[in-house]
Structures are given as structure tokens and as C-alpha cells.
């Protein structure tokens, strides 16, 4: 149940919003954000906002900030990027709530720039967080809604609240407990229950998918081993044919020979297109193939069975009931966030490796690393980027099958290209990029030198916050920076 306007008014009355400074904004999913604040008298405190869900609310939270920050979106979303650039460091100068409405307005001062931050705690598609300038012109929103005229650059129009015949009241209070704390406990317990149920369902789905795939592999390997288990019979056929080579007629489809292992007659099929000696060799070749396939399938079967047992035990431990709900949630979240990237590619590649969303970015810092990456670590479909008019390292974006490279990843790579070049310190730098298949090595040129074709120009305005974020994803290198 979301807060009604009277409950929102009570929440606001307990918050030290006026005079507080927004220090940091963390987005946990598409609906939930935590605003880390600082008040000269109160010190650091956190404000939690949830928009557009059945539990829409805003309240003070006492949850540990480090734990809150760990529960954030894998990819930095547009609105939180805007908030970090334009709202962090802003001071709240005034707080107001529309009469009889669930609309909150914070007046901000960001070093002389007036801003307004609106929390519209409505239900459905009317819920939103809106940031405007001092004149009410929309700068950005949590949810862009063009059909409602709510997009950047449009004036923000506040509609009067609809009349309601319902009499709203504040829910029953817990004695001697601040209302914000009561809400945190009520919604926190409910959220944990919902989150635990949702995460458990996702892990169960992941488990079923993985175990089904491994079980399929086990069955295929068992079938293949069984099909080739009689490889010794192929060798026997070759030996029997070899002993009777002189009596095998040409172009025969089969021949019956004496089987010295049983003392009986044995009929062996032949290829009419082959000579008798070629048929002998064909049976020996079949023996070698079947023997190798059987040995390989049997070995892989053992590995697959062991993996199936390990995975089954792993998921039993992950999904085991726990009295500590928060610990169980962290355990499930960790399981769902495990990287599927090849660790060898990350750790052992020359130069530096960074992450941008699900994409991997490789950076060579000198001619030797550039050349090594080109020769052994990138493929034709990967992307190469380099600064124009400035010497610098090569930056490669590892391609992903069926996915184009998002602009966000290009901007991350562009900032890295500037950082590891002689253009470092410049604010606006021109780069160019193309796929690796369009690079040609310069004949008799210096080590690692390439000549690009079909390159595209890419202008980058260096963003310190973006650069800091992508640098923090560095996985490791084989040399000191």
C-alpha cells in the first residue's frame, strides 16, 4: 500500500530536508533510489524513494549505506547519471507539498543555480520524479512520458488534485516510534519477503535451465559412448578381411569369412566402390574413429556427471532455507550476478581490461601491448578506437554476438582512449573507430602500427565522473601502470 497525502505530510515533518545537501544518488532498480544527504546539525542521513509501484513511498532509511550501494543497477541508468552530474552537491532550500496531494517539491541551490526536484507519488503511469530549472522547464525525469508532455525541454505543468470523497487517515501508529522508522520496518519486511520470493524464483529458473542443459549433455555423451562401445568389432572385421584378402571378390557388397575368435562364419559388409584392400583399411579407419570417440565421450561423460553433481549441490546450498532473510537475499543476488565472461580473457590479456555493462574493453598502453592485443586477443568483429592527431594506446571493444555496441559503451571506450593518450587533460577530443577487420598493418612500419579503413569519426567530451566509473571496473593487467 502506497502512502496517502496525510502520511506523506507526516513523513516530511520528521525529515531534516531543509538545509541538507545531496551528496550521492544510488539507483537500485527502475523504481527505487537512495539519496544520501548531509545536514549540518543531523550529519549524514539517507532518504529512500520508490516510485510507480504498489509500495510507492518516500521515507528516511537507516540501512547501512555500503549495503544499499551494493544493491544497484548493473548499468548506470540515464536519470541517475543526470542526478549525479546536476543534483549532487545541491542544497535543499525549501520543502513543500501540494495541499491534499501526493506531490512533493524540493527547491535546490546548486552553487548558485536554482533547481526544483519533484516527487510525484501517484500510482500507475502518473508516478514520476521530475527535475526542472528555476522557471519550471523540465531538465530530466525518471520516466519520460511524451504523451503527457513530460520530456526534457517542456514546461512542467502541475495539475490540480482531483477531488476525492475518501477520507484519508494515517495508518495506526507504533507507540514511541518515529513514523519514518515505522514505514521502514513495515515496507522493509514486506519488501524482503517479496524480494526473497522473486529472487528465489529467478534462481530456480536459472538452476533448472543449467541442470537441464548439463543433463542433456550427459545423455548425449552416454549415447555416443554406447554407439561406439563396440569399436573392437571394427578392428576384428579389418583383421578377418585382411586374413581373407585374396578371396574377397571385387565390387562385392559383403563377404562371409571364418571368424577365428568364435569358430563360426561371419558376414562383413563392404563398400562396392572400394577395392578389397581399401575395404580393409576402411574398417581399420572406422575402428580408430570409434575408439577415439568412445574414449573421448567416456571421459567427457565423467566430467559432465561430476559437474551435474556439483551444480546440484551448489543450488541446494544456495536455495536452502535460512533464518536470516537479508543473508539469503544477498546470497541469491550474488548467484544471479555471477559473470559469464571467460576469466582467462580478463586476467591474462596484455594491457588493461575494463567492463562497460556486459561489454569488455581492452586497452593497450604501448606498441608491444597494442601489437599483442591485435595478434592474439581481438577478432575481426571487435571494434578498434584511437585518438586523432595524438599518439596513444589502442582501445578495443569486444563484440557480442547479435548485439550492437551501445552509445554508453562507445563513450566509456572514448574516455579511456583519451585517458591513455597524449590527449589526456584535453576536454574535447576527436577519435575514430572501425572494426578490426578493416585494419591493415603498415608494411615495414613500426611495431603495432595499423592503417584503418571505413573508420568513423567520434567526438568525445571528457566526462570525469564517467571516466572514474569505468576506471573502477579495471580487472587487472600484466604490468604496472
Task: Please explain how this structure is put together.
- There is one protein chain.
- It contains eleven helices and 20 strands.
- The chain has 481 residues and is α+β, with helices and mostly antiparallel strands.
- The chain folds into three domains: 5-171, ibrinogen binding protein from staphylococcus aureus domain (ibrinogen binding protein from staphylococcus aureus fold, Roll), CATH 2.30.310.10; 188-338; 343-477, no CATH class.
- Helix 4 crosses helix 7, helix 5 (231-243) runs antiparallel to helix 6 (276-318) and helix 10 crosses helix 11 (464-471).
> Strand content of the residues, in percent?
15-25%
How far is the first residue's CA from the last residue's CA? 53 Å
CATH superfamily of the largest domain: ibrinogen binding protein from staphylococcus aureus domain
* Number of distinct beta strands: 20
* Chain oligomer state: single chain
